[in-house]
Design brief:
Structural class: alpha/beta
Pfam families: Bac_luciferase
InterPro entries: Luciferase-like_dom, Luciferase-like_sf, SsuD_RutA_monooxygenase
Largest sheet: 8 strands, mixed
GO biological process, one term: alkanesulfonate catabolic process
Mean pLDDT: 89
Shape: globular
Oligomer: single chain
Order of helices and strands: EHEEEHEHEHHHEEEHEH
Strand content: 15-25%
Distance between the termini: 24 Å
Protein name: Luciferase-like domain-containing protein
GO molecular function: alkanesulfonate monooxygenase activity
Number of helices: 8
Low-confidence stretches: none
Length: about 240
Protein backbone atom coordinates (compact mmCIF):
# COMPACT_ATOMS: atom_id res chain seq x y z
CA UNK A 1 0.00 0.00 0.00
CA UNK A 2 1.45 3.35 -1.05
CA UNK A 3 -0.31 6.42 0.40
CA UNK A 4 -0.96 9.50 -1.68
CA UNK A 5 0.62 12.50 0.04
CA UNK A 6 -0.72 15.96 -0.73
CA UNK A 7 1.26 18.78 0.85
CA UNK A 8 0.68 21.99 -1.07
CA UNK A 9 3.89 23.42 -2.49
CA UNK A 10 4.68 27.11 -2.79
CA UNK A 11 6.51 27.18 -6.11
CA UNK A 12 5.16 30.04 -8.25
CA UNK A 13 2.40 28.96 -10.62
CA UNK A 14 0.55 32.28 -10.84
CA UNK A 15 -2.38 31.18 -8.70
CA UNK A 16 -3.29 32.66 -5.34
CA UNK A 17 -3.24 30.64 -2.12
CA UNK A 18 -7.03 30.27 -2.30
CA UNK A 19 -6.97 29.25 -5.96
CA UNK A 20 -4.29 26.63 -5.37
CA UNK A 21 -6.47 24.94 -2.78
CA UNK A 22 -9.53 25.19 -5.00
CA UNK A 23 -7.49 23.38 -7.64
CA UNK A 24 -6.43 20.78 -5.07
CA UNK A 25 -10.04 20.25 -4.04
CA UNK A 26 -11.09 19.67 -7.63
CA UNK A 27 -8.08 17.42 -8.26
CA UNK A 28 -9.09 15.18 -5.37
CA UNK A 29 -12.63 15.04 -6.73
CA UNK A 30 -11.28 13.83 -10.08
CA UNK A 31 -8.87 11.36 -8.46
CA UNK A 32 -11.55 9.77 -6.29
CA UNK A 33 -13.90 9.53 -9.25
CA UNK A 34 -11.11 7.81 -11.19
CA UNK A 35 -10.60 5.30 -8.39
CA UNK A 36 -14.21 4.14 -8.75
CA UNK A 37 -13.10 2.25 -11.86
CA UNK A 38 -16.04 3.38 -13.96
CA UNK A 39 -16.09 5.66 -16.99
CA UNK A 40 -16.83 9.28 -16.04
CA UNK A 41 -16.89 12.85 -17.28
CA UNK A 42 -15.72 15.92 -15.40
CA UNK A 43 -16.08 19.52 -16.53
CA UNK A 44 -14.47 21.80 -13.96
CA UNK A 45 -12.61 25.05 -13.52
CA UNK A 46 -9.16 23.45 -13.56
CA UNK A 47 -9.66 19.95 -14.99
CA UNK A 48 -11.69 18.44 -17.80
CA UNK A 49 -12.06 14.69 -18.28
CA UNK A 50 -13.92 12.95 -21.10
CA UNK A 51 -14.65 9.25 -20.74
CA UNK A 52 -12.02 8.90 -18.05
CA UNK A 53 -11.40 5.44 -16.65
CA UNK A 54 -8.63 3.84 -14.59
CA UNK A 55 -7.26 0.59 -16.03
CA UNK A 56 -6.46 -1.62 -14.20
CA UNK A 57 -8.73 -0.83 -11.27
CA UNK A 58 -7.33 -0.21 -7.79
CA UNK A 59 -6.45 -3.14 -5.56
CA UNK A 60 -7.62 -1.26 -2.46
CA UNK A 61 -11.40 -1.24 -2.32
CA UNK A 62 -11.56 2.18 -0.63
CA UNK A 63 -8.78 3.74 -2.69
CA UNK A 64 -5.25 4.79 -1.82
CA UNK A 65 -4.93 6.46 1.62
CA UNK A 66 -4.56 10.22 1.24
CA UNK A 67 -2.18 12.13 3.51
CA UNK A 68 -2.95 15.85 3.43
CA UNK A 69 -1.02 18.75 4.95
CA UNK A 70 -2.05 22.39 5.28
CA UNK A 71 -2.82 24.77 8.13
CA UNK A 72 -5.02 27.44 6.56
CA UNK A 73 -8.78 27.23 6.98
CA UNK A 74 -9.30 26.23 3.36
CA UNK A 75 -6.65 23.50 3.66
CA UNK A 76 -8.20 22.04 6.80
CA UNK A 77 -11.63 22.07 5.18
CA UNK A 78 -10.36 20.05 2.21
CA UNK A 79 -8.55 17.67 4.54
CA UNK A 80 -11.72 17.14 6.56
CA UNK A 81 -13.68 16.41 3.39
CA UNK A 82 -11.22 14.25 1.44
CA UNK A 83 -8.14 13.11 3.40
CA UNK A 84 -7.54 9.94 5.38
CA UNK A 85 -4.61 11.29 7.41
CA UNK A 86 -4.18 14.95 8.33
CA UNK A 87 -0.41 15.52 8.42
CA UNK A 88 1.34 18.30 10.34
CA UNK A 89 4.92 19.32 10.99
CA UNK A 90 6.28 18.70 14.47
CA UNK A 91 5.10 21.86 16.19
CA UNK A 92 4.42 22.35 19.93
CA UNK A 93 2.04 19.80 21.41
CA UNK A 94 -0.58 22.39 22.37
CA UNK A 95 -0.76 23.73 18.83
CA UNK A 96 -0.95 20.27 17.28
CA UNK A 97 -3.77 19.32 19.63
CA UNK A 98 -5.67 22.48 18.68
CA UNK A 99 -5.29 21.72 14.97
CA UNK A 100 -6.47 18.14 15.47
CA UNK A 101 -9.57 19.34 17.29
CA UNK A 102 -10.29 21.85 14.54
CA UNK A 103 -10.05 19.24 11.79
CA UNK A 104 -12.12 16.76 13.81
CA UNK A 105 -14.88 19.34 14.16
CA UNK A 106 -14.79 20.08 10.43
CA UNK A 107 -14.85 16.36 9.55
CA UNK A 108 -18.06 15.84 11.51
CA UNK A 109 -19.90 17.92 8.90
CA UNK A 110 -19.01 15.25 6.34
CA UNK A 111 -19.64 12.31 8.71
CA UNK A 112 -15.97 11.44 8.50
CA UNK A 113 -13.23 10.54 10.98
CA UNK A 114 -9.60 11.16 10.11
CA UNK A 115 -6.33 9.87 11.50
CA UNK A 116 -3.45 12.21 12.33
CA UNK A 117 0.23 12.28 11.48
CA UNK A 118 3.42 14.17 12.28
CA UNK A 119 6.42 14.89 10.03
CA UNK A 120 9.53 15.45 12.15
CA UNK A 121 13.28 14.79 12.28
CA UNK A 122 15.04 12.70 14.91
CA UNK A 123 18.46 13.19 16.55
CA UNK A 124 19.15 10.42 19.06
CA UNK A 125 22.39 9.53 20.84
CA UNK A 126 23.39 7.61 23.96
CA UNK A 127 23.73 10.80 26.03
CA UNK A 128 21.83 14.07 25.95
CA UNK A 129 25.01 16.07 25.35
CA UNK A 130 25.98 13.89 22.39
CA UNK A 131 22.51 14.34 20.92
CA UNK A 132 22.59 18.12 21.14
CA UNK A 133 26.15 18.23 19.79
CA UNK A 134 24.96 16.20 16.81
CA UNK A 135 21.93 18.46 16.36
CA UNK A 136 23.94 21.68 16.26
CA UNK A 137 26.51 20.04 14.01
CA UNK A 138 23.77 19.61 11.39
CA UNK A 139 23.30 23.36 11.05
CA UNK A 140 26.95 24.35 11.57
CA UNK A 141 27.95 24.00 7.93
CA UNK A 142 25.29 26.12 6.24
CA UNK A 143 26.77 28.53 3.71
CA UNK A 144 25.77 32.19 3.49
CA UNK A 145 24.19 31.96 0.00
CA UNK A 146 21.98 29.10 1.19
CA UNK A 147 20.91 31.09 4.24
CA UNK A 148 20.22 34.15 2.11
CA UNK A 149 18.04 32.16 -0.27
CA UNK A 150 16.09 30.70 2.64
CA UNK A 151 15.57 34.13 4.17
CA UNK A 152 14.20 35.50 0.90
CA UNK A 153 11.83 32.56 0.66
CA UNK A 154 10.63 33.02 4.24
CA UNK A 155 9.90 36.71 3.59
CA UNK A 156 7.51 35.99 0.72
CA UNK A 157 5.94 32.61 1.53
CA UNK A 158 2.16 32.51 2.02
CA UNK A 159 2.07 29.12 3.78
CA UNK A 160 0.41 29.41 7.20
CA UNK A 161 2.37 26.46 8.60
CA UNK A 162 5.67 27.80 7.25
CA UNK A 163 5.07 31.15 8.92
CA UNK A 164 4.54 29.39 12.25
CA UNK A 165 7.67 27.32 11.66
CA UNK A 166 9.63 30.52 11.00
CA UNK A 167 8.54 31.92 14.37
CA UNK A 168 9.69 28.76 16.15
CA UNK A 169 13.08 28.92 14.43
CA UNK A 170 13.62 32.64 15.01
CA UNK A 171 12.31 33.19 18.53
CA UNK A 172 13.12 30.06 20.50
CA UNK A 173 14.76 27.05 18.93
CA UNK A 174 13.87 24.70 21.80
CA UNK A 175 10.26 23.99 22.72
CA UNK A 176 8.24 21.48 24.69
CA UNK A 177 10.60 19.13 26.53
CA UNK A 178 12.83 17.59 23.87
CA UNK A 179 11.98 19.41 20.64
CA UNK A 180 14.14 21.77 18.60
CA UNK A 181 13.42 24.06 15.64
CA UNK A 182 17.02 24.53 14.53
CA UNK A 183 16.55 22.42 11.41
CA UNK A 184 14.51 25.32 10.04
CA UNK A 185 17.76 27.27 9.70
CA UNK A 186 18.96 25.00 6.90
CA UNK A 187 15.77 23.90 5.12
CA UNK A 188 12.23 25.02 4.49
CA UNK A 189 9.23 22.91 5.35
CA UNK A 190 9.55 20.47 8.24
CA UNK A 191 12.12 22.26 10.38
CA UNK A 192 11.85 20.61 13.78
CA UNK A 193 13.42 17.61 15.49
CA UNK A 194 13.12 15.60 18.67
CA UNK A 195 16.58 15.55 20.24
CA UNK A 196 17.93 13.45 23.10
CA UNK A 197 18.67 10.01 24.45
CA UNK A 198 16.59 7.04 23.28
CA UNK A 199 14.34 7.43 26.32
CA UNK A 200 13.90 11.17 25.73
CA UNK A 201 13.11 10.70 22.04
CA UNK A 202 10.54 8.06 22.96
CA UNK A 203 8.98 10.50 25.43
CA UNK A 204 8.86 13.20 22.76
CA UNK A 205 7.07 10.89 20.34
CA UNK A 206 4.78 9.57 23.07
CA UNK A 207 3.61 13.12 23.77
CA UNK A 208 2.22 13.27 20.22
CA UNK A 209 0.73 9.79 20.53
CA UNK A 210 -1.06 10.85 23.71
CA UNK A 211 -2.99 13.57 21.84
CA UNK A 212 -4.10 11.27 19.04
CA UNK A 213 -1.24 11.10 16.54
CA UNK A 214 -0.91 7.62 15.02
CA UNK A 215 1.23 8.22 11.91
CA UNK A 216 4.86 9.37 11.98
CA UNK A 217 7.08 10.32 9.05
CA UNK A 218 10.58 10.51 10.52
CA UNK A 219 13.93 11.46 9.03
CA UNK A 220 17.46 12.43 10.01
CA UNK A 221 20.81 13.68 8.69
CA UNK A 222 22.25 11.55 7.16
CA UNK A 223 19.02 9.65 6.74
CA UNK A 224 20.24 6.04 6.46
CA UNK A 225 22.53 6.21 9.47
CA UNK A 226 19.99 8.02 11.64
CA UNK A 227 17.27 5.56 10.65
CA UNK A 228 19.49 2.68 11.76
CA UNK A 229 20.21 4.34 15.12
CA UNK A 230 16.50 4.98 15.65
CA UNK A 231 15.65 1.40 14.76
CA UNK A 232 18.24 0.00 17.15
CA UNK A 233 17.78 2.32 20.11
CA UNK A 234 14.27 3.84 20.07
CA UNK A 235 11.87 1.42 18.39
CA UNK A 236 12.50 -1.39 20.92
CA UNK A 237 11.34 0.98 23.69
CA UNK A 238 7.83 0.95 22.19
CA UNK A 239 7.52 -2.83 22.36
Amino acid sequence: MCPLSLLKCNHPDYLSHQQRYERTDEFLTVVKETWRGESFHHDGEFFNVTEGKLIPTLYQEKGIPIYFGGSSDVAKEIAAKAADVYLQWGEPIAGIQEQIQDVENRAKKYNRQLEYGIRIHIVVRDTEQEAWDAAYNIISKIENPVQSNLNRYYETVDSVAQKRMNVLTAENERFDQYSWAGIGKIRKGAGTAIVGTPEQVKAGLQAYIDIGVTHFILSGFPHKEEAEIFGEKVLPLFE
